[in-house]
Write a structure and sequence with these properties.
Elements (H helix, E strand, L loop, with lengths): L13 H11 L3 E5 H10 L9 E5 L5 H10 L4 E6 L9 E5 L13 E2 L3 E6 L12 E7 L10 H7 E3 L8 E11 L5 E6 L4 E3 L2 E3 L1 H9 L4 E9 L2 E8 L5 H9 L10 E5 L31 H14 L25
Parallel strand pairs: 1-2, 2-3, 14-15
Antiparallel strand pairs: 3-4, 4-5, 6-7, 7-9, 8-9, 9-10, 11-12, 13-14
Helix pairs in contact: 2-3
Length: about 325
Amino acid sequence: GGVSVLQPGQRPEPALIAELSRRHGVTMLQLSASLFNFLVDEHPEAFETVTVAFTGGEAASPAHVHKLQGLVPGIEVVNGYGPAESMGFTTTHAIPRGDVPPALVPVGVPLVNKGAYILDPYLNLCPPGVTGELYLAGEGLAHGYLGRPDLTATRFVPDPFGGRGGRLYRTGDLARFDAEGRIVYEGRADDQIKIRGFRVEPGETEAALLSHPAVTQAVVTVHRDRLSAHLVTEGETTPDDIRRHVADRLPEHLVPTFLTVLDRMPLTPNGKVDKRALPEPAPLATGGRAPRTPLEETLLALFTATTAVAKSAPRSSSTPARSPRPSPWDRR
């Protein structure tokens, strides 16, 4: 047997959660990723008696997992995945101790009697390393949505890999299998956006931001048709340094135009990041940099000759190279 300790109230109260955990000697603690991060930073005493900490609902923060493992020797941190339609966690991954986990922490493998498939738009299995949509199967799957037969038919589809009457739940999440057969969550399919004609997955930019040693949390959204990143950092760094770090790893259209550093992320009543409460993005400085290649030198010369701009950076953060009418470039 055991005792479940629930925090009263409608909104998460980190200080109260920490106090309840200590008072009752909680040994297993389950938190959303954002609430997990906040407790690790502000109320690490919440984990004093905890032997297993579960995090889920959002992408896990490698920096916070590593920090907690250092603060509480012997604690096991488990990254779980599972929407309400599958009755709790469907997959789990026990994060090993040691070095900082990768930027995208795996959500693991299915539990007993549960299944997970990564499929292309035609319901074909995706090979390892190829991103597709995550579908769930097995015990605990909901029958559908009450009073919403249309949504039920869209989200719950026949299982082509199971027996007669089997069903799959279409999660709307993007994922892939890594080299060890673990599922790696990459973001929401409906979060995909277009920036300057390119299809962009914000999770890819978030992963690059989190690979910077000073970035502990990152949320990427769209602002004025450009990518905007809100960050929580630890240690000495600058927005320009972070942007260079991302630019060295991703194409230009995946590099945020706006970077805003916060003390902490705003949370919803469910303990997840409240994107609607994020402050207005702060534009990056446009100091630019020197050209690095012969092509960039040529482009800089063209900018200088046709716009009379004395200094122009190939990676301008706020002034895109657009011309509403024919320009001297057309003749060059």
